Amino acid sequence: MPPNVQLPAERIDQIPTAPSPSKAVVVALAVLALSLFGGAVGLWGPPVLDAWLSNKGELAILWQKLHVTSSLKTCFHAIGVVGGLCAIAGLLGFIRSKPTYLILRFTVLAVVVVMAALVWLVWQGAFAMGREGLEINGSKQDSVTAFKMWWGICWPAFAVAAYAWWLQLMLRSRSVYAAFTSVTGRPLRGDRMLESLRTHGRDPRHRKSLYGSILTHLMILVIIPWILSLGGCVEAYKVPKGSGNPVVAMVKVVKPKKKKKKTLTLRPNSAILFDQPDLDETEVDQIMEEKTEVTYEANPNAMAGNIGKGGGDEGGWPEGMDDYKIRFIRLEHDGAGWDDGMNETAADINFLKAFAQATGFRKIASKGESHSIALLRKYPDDGFPPFVYLTGNDSMGRVSTKDAKILRDYCLKGGMLIADAGSARFHQSFTHFMRQVFPDKPLIDIADDDMIYQLPYAFPDGAPAFWHHGGRRPLGIKHEGRWVVFYHPGDMNDAWKSPGYTDVTPEMRDAAMNLGVNLVYYSFNQWDDAISKARK
After folding, report:
1. Which of 119, 199, 393, 417 is the 20 to 30 A CA-CA neighbour of 208?
2. pLDDT tens sequence across 228-261
3. Distance (Å, rounded) from C-alpha 314 to C-alpha 243?
4. How far, CA to CA in Å, does 406 sit from each of 200, 374, 391, 423?
5. Could you read off the pLDDT of 62-82 as tens digits, one per residue?
């Protein structure tokens, strides 16, 4: 017997040794409860394993080659058999006799054995994956990810094994043993170990240090990585509740004045003209230009607020909420400049203030927000953000297949990605990323007369070009008639920054703000439609 299990004689004498029928009933019920776990694993373990491996091609091949898959299925069936034994032993436990006692002990020991086999098999499979350096969901696996996978699968087995170990201690205590066999006497090993755990053993300082060490390792190796894997929490997003109408910024169409082109002649009556025509300004081109060119003068008093949907006059959206707060959420990535303009230059807050002034919705966030793409899956179905913003000054870095799917699912269910290029390198990286997110939906040109450019501000010539790091024309991705991605290749947020951080004219700043208002208004409308459809 280990020294730390030995107790002083006076403490041993205090351990109850009289038969305890109530403890015997508790043990029988506890063993019976194990049958539920064993039956569930035996019934659902193999199909769940097949479903889990169905989208992990290389891992499925590796496990099949190493016979891990077949061994795990055999182990699941064995756990199911042991679960059946637990049901029989638990029922027999209500008939207290020595054979029943032995059956209970054997059954509980069998539980520990099959749990140990499960842990060992998963260990072999997980670390074989790490040794091979397989990629799962776009991420290369190593010893760390292998350990996390092993723990994620096996922690229930450890919990059940600890539960079975406690049952063994109970069965090895004198009070339970006497209840089944009517044999009384001095405390047994189980009594000593239970009492040692309760009182910290013969050397409390040593035992407490041991407990502290185990708890510390458990926190560092298991609990903290598990908490980090959760990814954090999010606050549900709601738009302003109410009903309103789109208020269009009125424009006045002014027909351009045709300039009479001067010609140089030797004399008025001469048949020779000394005018050399410009090949880029043919008569056909001039006619087309005259037909399509119009000048728009915006009425500064046309923007009246109360925008929204539903036909009311107070403004807002039917599926919103009263206690609203308009927020600006950015997506983080591994590349440089993902928060460009959003910290010291307060571009996002400047835009929210402009949105509040333009629309009349005064309750806005006092600071910007950012989180990873993975957190988009945390939002409830009726509280996801209508839009998220993505920018950068360099390549985005590697984005996992899992994150790409999360972003795709967010867009398809009603969200909108507003992206903005801060450099030519980001433009190249982003367009490649979009092929990963939407392999079946290419980025396409957004026509100048698209609805997104009409409400609440009118942009008759389409979006302003700004710095055009990736071209002059905004691009987008459509799904079922709705823009799910709007991408401006010209660093729109540069014109949102506070004065002094960027060299823009007042006209450029107003154009950038107004374009942003249109995009947010569009996303709010699409969000309202998606929520309304989901609730029906």
Report:
1. 119
2. 555 566 778 878 877 777 654 444 444 444 444 4
3. 6
4. 49, 6, 18, 25
5. 888 889 999 999 999 999 999
The listed CATH number (3.40.50.12780, 3.40.50.12140, 1.10.357.10, 3.30.70.1400) that belongs to domain 329-535:
3.40.50.12140
Other CB atoms within 10 A of residue 76 CB: 21
Backbone phi, psi, residue 488, to 5°: -105, 120
Most confident of 88-97, 365-374, 465-474, 484-493: 88-97
Integer Cα distance of 123 and 189 in angstroms: 32
Strand partners, 475: 445, 487
**What is the spatial distance between Cα 374 and Cα 403, in angstroms, rounded to a whole number?**
6
Report pLDDT digits (tens) over 364-421: 888 888 888 988 888 888 889 999 999 888 888 888 888 899 999 999 999 999 998 8
| 296 vs 301: CA distance, rounded Å | 15
Q: Are 175 and 16 in contact (CB under 8 A)?
A: yes
Packing angle between helix 143-171 and helix 174-181, nearest 10 degrees? 50
pTM (predicted TM-score): 0.53
What six digits make up the tokens of 329? 């959420």
Of 468, 484, 476, 319, residue with least CA distance to 410:
484
* Integer Cα distance of 275 and 210 in angstroms: 100
